[in-house]
Specification:
This protein has 3 domains: 81 residues, Ribosomal Protein S8, Chain: A, domain 1, CATH 3.30.1370; 78 residues, Alpha-Beta Plaits (2-Layer Sandwich); 86 residues, RNA-binding S4 domain (Structural Genomics Hypothetical 15.5 Kd Protein In mrcA-pckA Intergenic Region, Chain A, Roll), CATH 3.10.290.10. It is α+β, with helices and mostly antiparallel strands. The protein contains 6 helices and 15 strands. The strands form 4 sheets. Strands 10-15-14-13-11-12 form a 6-stranded antiparallel beta sheet. One of its GO terms (molecular function) is RNA binding. This is RNA-binding protein ylmH. Keywords: RNA-binding.
Length: 263
């Protein structure tokens, strides 16, 4: 049995419940000698899980190492196990519609799945949106339900079918490189600058659980960011701090960031 409580000092308190849940899973695999598969995890969670498995004799496999996606399912297995990619239990669904009259967005597709069908976010992987069609990675157990239930998303009539995972498209990178100047690396200041909102509005977004840093929910408006940090704002998009270009004569930070905002 593996006790990971000594590792808590390396993680944030809000991550403790996830660590406890994953530790229980690792102990089950170790005790029963049977593999287990997680729901879809974000990159931060995948990193944590791999670090928890590392000190053991178990094997760990993430679907993100085999399919180009952000969210992935992870297999934790005994040392005798040889990977069968089918064990990830991921289905790829293609959504097609008439682009002449509609252009579906990531948010509309996700909203239909979560709000109208009542599907938990952890059962859904990446959503890739192109003109006239989209692709959706889901827990295979949901496949029949999704295929037979969805006929409309927003105002668009849609057709759904399963396609092989080797037809997964690579996400198009619509990120823009932007140079900004800020007086502080505080989270609220950067959110306000990037979104072109007041500092009070930025603080409200942070305090109402709309902002994550490196996939971690944050609540402190005065948290300082560092180069490499990725900030996501629900309903707006995300940005990543790429380079620190020094200070202006007035002492402001000159930063280059990558920004992807929802249309």
């Amino acid at each position: 049995m593996v006790n990971h409580k000594q590792l808590y000092q390396h993680f944030y308190p809000e991550e403790y419940p996830f660590i406890e849940k994953m530790s229980d899973m690792i102990n089950r695999v170790d005790s029963h000698y049977l593999l287990e598969v997680t729901d879809f995890l974000n990159p931060r969670e995948i990193t944590i899980l791999k670090s928890l498995v590392a000190p053991t004799d178990l094997k760990v496999f993430s679907s993100t190492d085999y399919y180009p996606s952000e969210y992935g399912r992870v297999i934790v297995a005994p040392d005798y196990y040889d990977l069968d990619e089918a064990d990830f239990q991921i289905a790829l669904v293609e959504i097609t519609y008439q682009a002449k009259f509609n252009q579906l967005t990531h948010g509309q597709i996700l909203g239909t799945l979560i709000n109208e069908l009542g599907i938990k976010r952890s059962l859904l992987g990446d959503i890739f949106v192109e003109t006239g069609y989209a692709q959706l990675m889901i827990n295979r157990q949901l496949l029949d339900y999704v295929l037979t239930t969805i006929s409309k998303i927003a105002r668009a009539s849609v057709s759904l079918k399963e396609i092989p995972l080797n037809q997964l498209i690579k996400s198009s990178n619509d990120a823009q490189l932007v140079d900004i100047m800020v007086s502080s690396l505080r989270l609220d200041r950067l959110v306000a600058t990037v979104l072109k909102k007041s500092r009070a509005q930025a603080m409200t977004l942070i305090e109402t659980d709309k902002v994550k840093v490196n996939y971690r929910q944050v609540h402190k408006v005065a948290d300082h960011l560092a180069i490499g940090d990725m900030v996501s704002i629900r309903g707006y998009g995300r940005f990543t701090l790429l380079t620190d270009n020094g200070l202006t004569k007035n002492g402001k930070y000159k930063l280059t960031l990558s920004k992807m905002m929802h249309k």
